[in-house]
Design a protein that fits this description.
- This protein is of the alpha/beta class and 190 residues long.
- The protein has a single domain, classed as Rossmann fold.
- Helices cover 28% and strands 23% of the residues.
- The strands form 3 sheets. The protein has a 6-stranded mixed beta sheet. Strands 4-5 form a two-stranded antiparallel sheet.
- Helix 2 packs parallel to helix 4.
- The radius of gyration is 16 Å and the shape is globular.
- The relative contact order is 0.20.
- InterPro entries: FTHF_cligase (IPR002698), FTHF_cligase-like_sf (IPR024185), NagB/RpiA_transferase-like (IPR037171).
- GO terms for molecular function: 5-formyltetrahydrofolate cyclo-ligase activity; ATP binding; metal ion binding.
Amino acid sequence: MTALMDKKTFRSWQRQRLADFAKTPAKKRQDQELTSLALQHPLVQEAKKIGLTLPMLLEVDINGLIKELRGEGKELYLAKCHPGWQLDFLKWDEGAPLMQTKFGVWELAEEKEADNALDLLFVPGLAFSPAGKSRIGFGGGYYDRFLAQNSVQTLALVNSAMYFKTPVWPMEDHDQAMDDLIIVKEAGDE
């Protein structure tokens, strides 16, 4: 895979790749390695207020990371989607009830006031490239809109199935680059 694909075609192709990868022992091993690397990252160590999304099957499993961050006394904020493709972050206390959206994303069940003044945000996505620290998400533009309106350091956890040496999807003006990528291993050109 080296030719540039339109975003819709790429997302469909990449979702299948990630679904296949999720069934392998390498996925769990890489998720654990990414947790370890994340805990050592300076942006994570310095942050007090961290925003995140609970992972879906195709994404890096950060449940172990969440447990470690709570143990270190970090304040965690869970993403909440709103109409108009808007995103806010709500303080997530351990044990707070969650609900699953129609897209399969877990959010806080209770409504509370948003607090988007985060120190760090773990940004999910389908694929990432160190070239321009670029990312392609799931297609709603929630994170690009949020990052255009809020000043926050961003990190992405990248397993070998999400890694592309250079983007094979088109980059657009509204696409927001990550501040850093934590890459489990370089998979080479796809």
